Amino acid sequence: MLDATLTETDAQASLRRSEADNPSSLVMRFGTDAPLTLDAGPAIAPWQIAYQTYGELNADRSNAILICHALTGDQHVASTNPVTGKPGWWTLMVGPGRPIDTDRFFVICSNVLGGCLGTTGPASTNPDTGQPYGLDLPVVTIADMVRAQAMLVTALGIDQLFAVVGGSMGGMQALQWAASYPERVFSAVAIATSYRHSSQNIAFHEVGRQAVMADPDWCGGRYLEAGRNPKKGLAVARMAAHITYMSDRSLHQKFGRNLQDREAVAFGFDADFQIESYLRHQGMSFVDRFDANSYLYVTRATDYFDLAADHGGVLANVFRGTKTRFCLLSFTSDWLYPTAESRAVVHALNAAGAPVSFVEIDSDRGHDSFLLDIPEQFRIVRGFLTGAARARGIAGPAEEDNR
Amino acid sequence: MTDLADLASDVRIDLRLIADLIAPGSRVLDVGCGDGALLELLERTRGVDARGIEISQEGVNAAVARGLSVIQGDADSDLVQYPDQSFDYVVLSHTIQATRNARRVLDEMLRIGRRVVVSLPNFGHLDVRFRLMFLGRMPVSKRLPYSWYDTPNIHFCTIRDFVELAREVGAHVEQAIVLDGAGKRLPFSLPWIVWNVLGAQAVFLLSRDGR
């Protein structure tokens, strides 16, 4: 059963708690003189944003690339995660000699607003109460996340980013950057993403949130003070979400109907099938590193995302007059954010006269393809950044190597 | 669509001819741009704002890897997305024969671009006529390397056919350049009927009448 293996050490729990307020990465703290205004209405202050940087900023501050992470990612794009001890989540894309070449570019990656690894989120201490925010934190949006990042970028002394790059929810942020701050984004790379959440996207997220809130250990969102953790609910939420990250074909190829450590089905509700065992593992390892309330906030932010809504429902109007160079990538087997969604953005960009590159990459590994070793993806991003760097008059990524 | 490697050296002439027709610094959309060879040539040598559409993933990958703004798309369905007169030139090089609705594609191009450049292989060429007449087979050559059953080229036409289509969609032929099988330019003075037999490929510069 799920709970039999849901044992979290006190050390892990306290580490996660301490990372929320005092991250082991860099952190920029904004006082009451620099409140962060939110779409929901109220502003928050003081607040903070945790980030990592890689590479060197050049003399005229023109080589900075902001990486935006996906739903449950973090700032450790190419450095070891302090909670899990695992390597960075996008080391295939970011690093020395990689397409986002840290020998050439100054790379910034920050934890999103509403996250749980050092940027203000529901697990952070509410300065008014001295207790974790819980659900007292206003609901945040993708635009809020981007506004927070923009304040960080400004604080780092950078006017214009050479590129904003992200996959999935990170791609939404890249598009939002281009929409909110067109003059501050020289180029934008949006991978496996959409310009708005579909009804189906919202539906899956709602299942996840309901699973969290149905767990008695959730305690109406005040589990941190109660010394509890809605692990079962969060694990189920992750299991459901994880299915959406993979394709039917990749699940079938990986697991088929294979049984887990047994010769025949056990006529019970234990994990007979490998896919069940795999999903349980995904759910369990997730709860060790992620805050349940944060999961509610970040899923809500993506549900509220609708880039065209603020522009009379016409996506092309979002990008009218933009000088940003765009690159969009989608994957054939991604049914979470299918190619048609990227194509709609591409059509809008064409209508707006914006320079745009777009490829649908052949991959049967579903939405998660953007995190996997798909060489075509890296070739295209490297080529796109090379062309953009030439146009910007800075050094592009190193020529492709076979590391 | 346009398989530049197979079409070898004479298409390089075709690309150079197209490049010569394009004013420096203009906005160009290449429909069926393949691996982006023409766009790169235009961007590097003529400083144009170059955009492309290509149907094959390999083609788009190669073009984007060159740093070009190219999207994966289909001439038959994706041209409608572009606003009227949003480009100075819209180029269709060795692609018209692979479109499903060539007339509509040409119409859309004339709507999007102030000028349209079309290059095409001439199905009325002597070599094609010879193969059909004496061998009784659909022509397969270096320039037309596909067998009839697996060719992407579904709408072949002759130079005269194309000139007729241009007239039907209300396009004015500003310039026409015809190359023989060796890639040599045929003299201007020759009548259409001779071009239609000796020309292996042709490049047209079109605009809408009255503009």
Automatic annotation (TrEMBL), chain A:
| Catalytic activity field | L-homoserine + acetyl-CoA = O-acetyl-L-homoserine + CoA
Question: Main EC class of this protein?
Answer: transferase
GO terms for biological process, alphabetical: homoserine metabolic process; methionine biosynthetic process
- Active-site residue list: 168, 334, 367
The AB hydrolase-1 domain extends over 63-371
Compartments, record wording: Cytoplasm
One GO cellular component from the entry?
cytoplasm
> A single GO molecular function, which one?
homoserine O-acetyltransferase activity
Recorded metabolic or biological pathway in which this protein acts: Amino-acid biosynthesis; L-methionine biosynthesis via de novo pathway; O-acetyl-L-homoserine from L-homoserine: step 1/1
| UniProt family annotation | Belongs to the AB hydrolase superfamily. MetX family.
Protein name per the record: Homoserine O-acetyltransferase
Q: Which organism is it from?
A: Pleomorphomonas carboxyditropha
UniProtKB/TrEMBL annotation, chain B:
InterPro entries referenced in this protein's UniProt entry, alphabetically: Methionine_synth_MetW (IPR010743), SAM-dependent_MTases_sf (IPR029063)
In terms of Pfam families, this protein maps to: MetW
The domain of life for this entry's organism is Bacteria
* Name of the molecule in the record: Methionine biosynthesis protein MetW
State the organism's lineage: Bacteria, Pseudomonadati, Pseudomonadota, Alphaproteobacteria, Hyphomicrobiales
